[in-house]
């Protein structure tokens, strides 16, 4: 599992744990939304460029970002 996916899983876990009233912490939700949006922008950028060297590393990063975005969507982070 890559860096962004680990961050997403941690953010989703914090959100699902809720606060004392059983509601998600607003700051954690906002943090997750910002992380998802950053991943979406980064993914869009990476998909547009073509770097011959380090192609494997680039593909791994793209896969990580796609998995991260899917995790947030599955957790209904819009």
Write structural notes for this entry:
This protein is mostly helical and 78 residues long. Helix content is 74%, strand content 0%. The protein contains 3 helices and no strands. The protein has helices spanning 3-17, 26-48, 55-74. The chain is elongated and about 45 Å long.
- Determine the N-to-C terminus distance: 23 Å
Chain oligomer state = single chain
What's the domain count?
A: 1
Mean of residue pLDDT values: 83
Supply the number of helical segments. 3
Main pleated-sheet profile: none
Number of strands: 0
> What percent of residues are in strands?
under 5%
Structural class: mainly alpha
Name the overall outline: elongated
- Spans of 5+ residues with little confidence (pLDDT < 50)? none
Radius of gyration: 14 Å
Helix content: over 70%
Strand and helix order: HHH
What brief labels describe this structure?
78 residues, mainly alpha, 0% strand, elongated
What is the gist of this entry?
74% of the residues lie in helices and 0% in strands. It has 78 residues and is mainly α.
How is this fold's topology laid out?
Layout: H1 3-17, H2 26-48, H3 55-74
Helix pairs in contact: 1-2, 1-3, 2-3
């Amino acid at each position: 599992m890559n860096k962004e996916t680990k961050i997403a899983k941690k953010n989703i876990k914090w959100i699902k744990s809720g606060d004392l009233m059983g509601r998600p912490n607003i700051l954690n939700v906002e943090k997750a939304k910002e992380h998802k949006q950053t991943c979406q922008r980064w993914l869009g950028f990476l998909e547009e460029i073509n770097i011959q060297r380090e192609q494997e590393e680039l593909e791994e990063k793209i896969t990580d970002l796609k998995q991260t975005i899917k995790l947030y969507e599955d957790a209904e982070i819009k």
